Structure formats: structure tokens, C-alpha cells
Amino acid sequence: MRQLYCVTSDNRGERQLLAPQRAGDCVLPLSEAACAELVSLHGPMVKAACQRILRDAALAEDAAQEVFLLLVRKLPALPAQTILGGWLYFTACHLARTHHRTHARRWQRENQPEVIETFMNPAQDTLWSELEPLLDDAMLTLSERQRELVLSHYFQNNSQRAAAALVGCSESVASRDLAAALETLRRFFSRHGVTVSGAALVTLLTTHGAQASIGTATVAATLSSASAVAGTCAVGIPLSLGLMKTTTSTKIIVAAAAALLITSGTVHYLSRQDAQNAQTKTGVQPTPVVATADKTQSTSEVARPSAGAPFRPSTPTLRGSPFSTEPKPPPVYDEAALRAAREKLDKFFRRMEELALVGDPLKVQELLNAEYGIRLSVDELRQLQERGQKGFTFGVMELWAAKQPQDALAWAASTMSQTGGGVDFHQMVLDAARKSLPNLNHDTLGAMLPEGPGKTKVLDLLEATTDPYSLANRILAVSDPAERASRLRVLAQGWSNTETSTEWARQNLTGADKTAFYAQVGYNLAHQSPDAALRVLAELQGTDAYASTFGAMMRGLVQIGGRGQEAAELIANSNLNPGARAELISELARRWVRQDADATVAWANNLTAPEDFRAAIPLLVSQLDNDRVSSTVEAFMKNHDPVMELALIEAAAPPGLAFDPEKSRLILDPLISGDRGIKLTSGEGGGSNKGEMLWNSVNQTAKRQAEVGQPAAAMEWLSQLPFASQSDYAKAAANVLTVWNLKSPTEAAGWLQNAALNPAVKADLVKTVQP
Fold first, then answer.
1. Are 104 and 448 in contact (CB under 8 A)?
2. Is the separation of the CB atoms in 121 and 60 below 8 Å?
């Protein structure tokens, strides 16, 4: 038998490392002495990683032995330069997570409250106990070389020189990479609420990183026996069932063959060449997900398809435990149930906007608790109200999910939201909840959530963040086109690296599936990579999704990326229907004016088609400074243009914007006073003529004035305007009074009591302030 290579000690007086460091350092069959050295060197690190994830020493012992058995099976196919310490650590993390999901499901069936309590109240007695649950997730965010260096230098206490020699770099490069790795780890911990200095982190890694005892002799004997059998078998042939060895004083592990078969589907460390070798030797077609690690991705993206191979749904694989069970299919909800779930969420948003205006934070606290079970302090609510209605709504959602993650997630599962660009309710709640539950995984979340129309979306969003390729496999196996497209949009929304997700879609999706994915990923992609977004847009040219995707990209392309002129040229050269063209022009004006007002004004002045000009003006003018607004109105008053007039009326109260009511009055007051015969009417035409359009803008402006300023001032302004009838006035006044009643019921009732109004009008308004 060929002898194992030895790594000599350096100036620090390290002992010689008789155990193999790389796959090429050993051949089958391994002697028991060689196996003992292998387990002695790497066993504590492997078991420590398993124990941090499984939180049980006996289970960790079993998992660690499975890792080493798997190594014996994979050795013939591993590239000779594969560093065994890194391979063992990486494999241990993934195999332990597989077992953790299995045991979490079983524990949930037996005692669900205890499982949830474990996630919601982690022990944090010391700094190490805070770092420990996060360590392995943090380690997997490092590049492969950085991870190998940290494992060798800190976990296994080798010198920096020895670690550098192991990975094949200079000592200066190793020093730089180690410093970068420590900073990456420290920032990861900081994002998860644990602050640790670099020096303290080094001490903790050195002391605790590989601190776990393992039965070296027992495991070595098992490995040696397995190696002897593997040496006489082709790669992939099951090992003899006679190779059972004890792993603890009270347990006997399953046969090596069973252990290897059960775990083989869970390890994602093989290179593409490894998979090809295995296919050649065994004649077995590999699973469609090629298990190579993308070093630019998060830990969730360690398994990804090869760039050239088609992506297809993976074939079923053996599960990681004989105790696991197939999940029950989610219930099917009819359109009425889905509509009710959407209306429930819409009602929540409307209620948050109302509560943002309530003047008494103590009352807000009582209402939130009574209506939704949301428990926030008065000080927290007061601070949120200072952010305005939008800031209050988002702030309540985030604090609710962070402080009561189980309650917030359960409520989210009962609702439905339209997946699209911008802020998504389910995504925001999940992101906030994960800050309090950093170890939350798909199976535990599934056990935690009640059944509801939004449960599948929440679960898919979590998996899209943590393991997008696995979710992609399952989605592509969905036969119903509508369901598949819907879930692809969720995958696109949750996948953190948009360039990677876009490239996956480009290679593996076609037709309506690709269109659905592109339409969803566009918003985030434009923010992260405008050039990549423009390539996607070019691929969508001529499809029904082109205009909507372009609109979703506009903020990232123009407001953030400064591509206003390029976007304008794309719109000008696109063959769009009039409605889609108007919407894109309006959105371009909205975004471009925030980035470069002068360029936007120049562009709008050069628009020749009246309908284009009409589309651009409202969201442009409404965001100019007050001096420019006044100048624009003055110019119009000197040279009346009916297209400009209608555009200015809409600019006074632009839809979808939190506008300034004082700026609105700079537009409305001159327009109304300049037309002595005008009458403001609520009408039934929905704004089909000038009088109705003015009433709509006045109504919205007065309501906005009441929200952000003094309701009494809004009422005074309304009293001076030429309404067509008392009824038209009463409708506008009722909207102001509704806001006033939220902010201060006493003041609203007092104003109404003293107002000199027509008795019939006053009787109608009294109904507004009645509880």
C-alpha cells in the first residue's frame, strides 16, 4: 500500500501531520492507523460543526461518522487537489442540516411548542453562545480559499505558513485573506445582532471552532473496514451490510451502505468533473443539479446547474432519515377565498394609514392589540407616526415581525398580495422575522405556519432566499402553467442575486415562464445592474410583458442608474399601444425629475405629440420646486393651452405620490380664480370634464392638507371655493372631517358644532364624526 504523504512542521514546532491533507494523499484501502490519524485531525472539527447545527452530541456523533464514511466512498472520484478539511467541513454542514430538518419535523409532530420555543428563545448567556448558532452559516459565506484558511489556521490551530502551504498561496496572501475572512464573519454576526471584535473572534474560533470529542478508535475502525470493501468495489456500489459499528455507548448506526445511500443526495460539494467521472464509472445519470459552489453567491446558492446543461426538475432522491415523511399537499383555494385573502391585506393597509393619523398613541396601541394582536410600546408608535402614513405602515410591519415573528408570519400566511416590483408585504414580514429567528429553515417554518392562501408564498420566499436552485427544481415540475408562473415570480422576487437568477432563467426558461420570471426580477435587477436589466428588456421586446417590466425597471434605470436619456430613446423607438406608452412616459417623468430636473424639463418640452406631453407633465411638475411650479403656471395663464391645463390640474394631486398640498394650491388657486365661470362638481363622470377634474384635485388636496397639516385650514380653503352645489362641498368636507376625527375627535366635533352650514349638510357631516 502506498504510504501517506507527510506535511512537515514549521518553526512553531507543530507536530507532523501524518493524516492526509488532500484527496491525492491517500488511496484505498486505508489502514486503521491512517484512518485514526484522519479522524484525530479532522474529527473534532467535523463533529463540532454537526453539533452546532443539531444541538445534540449523540446525533452529532452519528452525523460525523456518516461524513467520514461518505468521504471513503467519494475518495476515488475526488480531484487529487481537494483539501480534505474543507471538504469534510462543507459536507458536515449540509449533512447536519439535512438531519436537522428531519428531526425538526419529528419533534414538531411530537411536541410542536418546544420546537418553536427553541427557535424563539435561543440561549445567549455568553458571546460564544450567541455566535455558535450563526457560525456555520457565516463560514459558508466565505470564498472557498478563505474558508480553507480559517479552518486550517483557527479551527485546527495550524500556523499561518502551514495554512498557506495547504491552499497553495503565499503567506502574505494567506494573511490578507484571513483578515478579509475575519471581517466578513464579523459583519455577518453584526447583521444578525451580535457584535464581536476581531481579536475576540480569533480567540473564540481558536478555542471553540473544533472543540468536540469524537470516538477516534471506533470511527477509524469503521472507516478502515469500509475502505477495505470500497477498495474492491466500483465507485457507487453499495458497501456490505456487515460493516455496522457502534457510534456511542447506547447506539448502533445503520449499515455503512445505508448511511452512504441516505446521505449521498444531500452533499453538494462535487465538482463538475467529479460528476462526470461518477457518471462514466457507474453508468448512472447524475442528478440535474450540478453541485458546484458559486463563490459569488450566498450560502444558499451552493448547488447550481452547470452553465451549459439544461435545467430540468430533479429526480426523486432518498431522504436523509427513515423517520421523514412526505409533506401533505397544500390545500387548494377557490377564487372567493383568494379574493377574501387579498381584501384582508388591503384592509390592513387602509387601517394602518388611518391609525397613522390618530392623535393619541395610547389609543393606537389599544387598537393594534385588539384588532391584530400587535403589541408595540407607546413610544415606538409615537416615533412611527412621525414618519408619516407610509413610514408608519412599514414600521409597524417590521416591528411586529421582529418582536412577534410567529404571530406576524401566521397572519401573513392568511393573506395574499400581488407579487410585483417594490415593497412586498410577505417579503418584508419574512425578512424582519428572520432577524429574530436566524436559524429558521423551510421545514420549521412550514410546521409553524397555519394553513392559509399565503403559506406557500411565504415558504417559497424563504427557500428562494436560502436555497433557490432547490425551489427552482420543484417549481419546474409543476404542471399547471398559471401556478408555475406565479411561483416563478415568487422565486424571482426572493432570489437575492438578481444577475445569477436572470442568467438561470435565460438558460432554463422559455415562453410564458421566462416572461413571468423576467417581469418580476426586473425591478431588483435594474437597481443592481442596469446593463443586465437592459439586456432583459431587449429580450422582452414585442411581448405583452415589455411595457410593465420596463415600468418596473424605471426607478433603478433612471432615478438610481441615471439612464434617463436612454430610457426616453427606448420609449420613442418602441412600438407600444397608446395606453402603455403614456404610462411609461409618466413613469419616466416621475423618476427622471428626481435625478435631473433640467434634463427632464428639456425632454418634456421637446415632446411633439400632445398625448405624450399630457402624460409627462403631471408627475414632472408636481415634483419641481415651488418657484418652477409658479413660473410654469404663470406661463400657462399667459398662453392658454387646453392640453397643458388638464395636465396641470392632474399635477396638483398626482396619483400615487405623497404630494405637498401647499404646492398643489400654487396650481389650483390660479386656475380656479382665472376662470370665473367654473363650478367644482363631484359629478358621475369620474373627471371627464374640467369641473370634475378640478373637484377631484381639490378634494385630494384638502384631504392631504388635513393629514399633514391643520384640518381647520383645509376647511377654511374649501369654504372659499366655487362648488356647484352644497352637496359637492359636503362630499369634500366629509373627507377632511374623517381625517380630523382620527387626529382629534374633540376638535372635529367642536368645529362641526360651530360651523355655519346648511342644516341638511350639517346633518350629513354629523354622521362622519359619530362612532
1. no
2. no
* Residues 73 and 229 sit within 8 Å (Cβ to Cβ): no
Backbone angles phi, psi at 304, to 5 degrees: -145, 155
From the list 424, 395, 564, 558, the residue with the least C-alpha distance to 489 is 424
Evaluate the CA torsion angle 687, 691, 694, 695 in order and state its sign.
negative
CB atoms within 10 A of CB 409: 27
390-397 contacts, C-beta under 8 A, 24 or more apart: 390/658, 392/352, 392/353, 392/355, 392/356, 393/349, 393/352, 393/353, 393/356, 394/423, 394/428, 396/352, 396/368, 397/425, 397/428, 397/429, 397/432
Rounded distance, CA 726 to CA 255, Å?
88
pLDDT at 685 over 60: no
Residue 353 has a CB neighbour count (10 Å cut-off) of 16
Question: DSSP string of 716-736?
Answer: HHHHTS-BSSHHHHHHHHHHH
Q: Please state whether the predicted TM-score (pTM) of the whole model is above 0.90.
A: no
Per DSSP bridges, beta strands 251-252 and 246-248 are: antiparallel
DSSP 477-488: T---HHHHHHHH
- Would you state the cell numbers that stand for residue 124, as one nine-digit string? 445567549
- Name, in order, each residue with C-beta under 8 angstroms of 407's C-beta and a sequence gap of 6 or more: 373, 374, 400
User: Strand, helix or coil at 246?
Assistant: strand
Q: Are 523 and 555 in contact (CB under 8 A)?
A: yes
Q: How far apart are CA 345 and CA 412, in angstroms?
A: 9
Sign of CA pseudo-dihedral 589, 593, 596, 597: positive
| Among the listed residues 39, 44, 45, 65, the one whose alpha carbon sits nearest the alpha carbon of residue 253 | 65
Q: Which residue is associated with the grid cell 397613522?
A: 356
User: H or E stretch including 375?
Assistant: none
**pLDDT tens for each residue of 639-683:** 888 999 999 999 999 987 889 999 999 999 999 999 889 999 987
